[in-house]
């Protein structure tokens, strides 16, 4: 497994200022260093302990005899060399940093991560998250499509596909169990794809939104109960809208369908809209819950891949659909 700690991106080519300097002395030091690409400077004491940072704009606006420590910004985000590069990506994205100071266990400045390297880390982490959400394994490196061999592509994709294919046997077993229901009421098969697709889409949307919010640090595990309540409220609104769509579709497209016995189109419409509503609510909560569970166990929320959620909610959708159909339409 590749080393993904931030030490792989530490640059020793940085410029720090002694916290004891005056503004005038600091500006003279900056002139001698002669690097116009720098926008901010890190302050250290005599033991190289990081004391803060100061921007070039603040130095130019201050009085020459003013101590630069009085201008120091204390909100200086730092990382240790052994921290994961994903944490660096989060800091660069969330705080729009120009650079990121790296300190050791004694709080001494040992290097920086430059803006260019920060953008490279962001690219790698974003690619890794996208691939994991699509069920593709690998190390998440920003490797061009053509640079990977066919065998590497197969290796990266086959794991999830085999696992999901095995899970698909469960769906087949459910269909076999309710085979008699399909024989008695063929109309159930017409609306089965709509139930499955709506659940998969709702779950994937919810998982994507929560995974992104966790990656950006917008949400924390302590917010889990609030997230679930919010997603539940969202799912109720989505379920109501989709239930109306389902009712309209049944009414306009199958109102003249011949139904066995004393079944009515209205009862079929009620069954399908109820199944769709429950499926959307369940799928949304599953999609929101799985990234939170992954985060709780210190795993990347992106490993809860979109294909996996789709397969899981397909299974739940079949159970919900046929259970309601057997109770409401077939008196089972």
From TrEMBL:
Membrane topology qualifier: Multi-pass membrane protein
Name under which the protein is recorded: Magnesium transporter MgtE
Family, as annotated: Belongs to the SLC41A transporter family.
Primary role: Acts as a magnesium transporter.
SMART domains linked to this entry: CBS
Subcellular location: Cell membrane; Membrane
SUPFAM superfamilies, A to Z: CBS-domain pair (SSF54631), MgtE membrane domain-like (SSF161093)
Major place of residence: membrane
């Amino acid at each position: 497994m590749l080393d993904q700690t931030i030490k792989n991106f530490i640059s020793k080519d940085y410029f720090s200022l002694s916290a004891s300097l005056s503004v005038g002395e600091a500006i003279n030091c900056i002139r001698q260093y002669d690097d116009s690409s720098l926008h901010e400077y890190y302050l250290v004491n005599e033991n190289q302990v990081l004391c803060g940072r100061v921007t070039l704009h603040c130095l130019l606006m201050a009085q020459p005899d003013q101590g630069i420590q009085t201008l120091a910004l204390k909100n200086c985000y730092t990382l240790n060399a052994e921290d994961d590069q994903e944490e660096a990506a989060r800091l660069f994205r969330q705080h729009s940093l120009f650079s990121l100071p790296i300190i050791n266990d004694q709080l001494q400045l040992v290097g920086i991560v430059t803006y260019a390297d920060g953008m490279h880390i962001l690219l790698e982490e974003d690619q890794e998250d996208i691939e994991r959400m699509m069920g593709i394994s690998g190390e998440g490196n920003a490797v061009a499509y053509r640079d990977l061999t066919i065998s590497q592509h197969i290796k990266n994709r086959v794991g999830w596909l085999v696992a999901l294919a095995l899970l698909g046997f469960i769906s087949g077993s459910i269909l076999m169990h309710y085979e008699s229901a399909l024989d008695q009421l063929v109309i159930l098969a017409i609306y089965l794809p709509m139930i499955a697709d709506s659940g998969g889409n709702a779950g994937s949307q919810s998982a994507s939104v929560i995974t992104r919010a966790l990656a950006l640090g917008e949400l924390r595990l302590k917010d889990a109960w609030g997230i679930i309540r919010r997603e539940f409220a969202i799912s109720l609104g989505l379920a109501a809208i989709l239930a109306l769509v389902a009712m309209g579709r049944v009414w306009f497209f199958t109102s003249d369908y011949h139904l066995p016995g004393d079944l009515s189109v209205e009862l079929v419409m009620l069954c399908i809209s109820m199944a769709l509503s429950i499926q959307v609510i369940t799928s949304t909560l599953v999609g929101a819950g799985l990234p939170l569970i992954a985060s709780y166990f210190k795993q990347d929320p992106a490993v809860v891949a979109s294909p996996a959620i789709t397969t899981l909610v397909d299974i739940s959708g079949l159970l919900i659909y046929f259970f309601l159909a057997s109770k409401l339409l077939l008196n089972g």
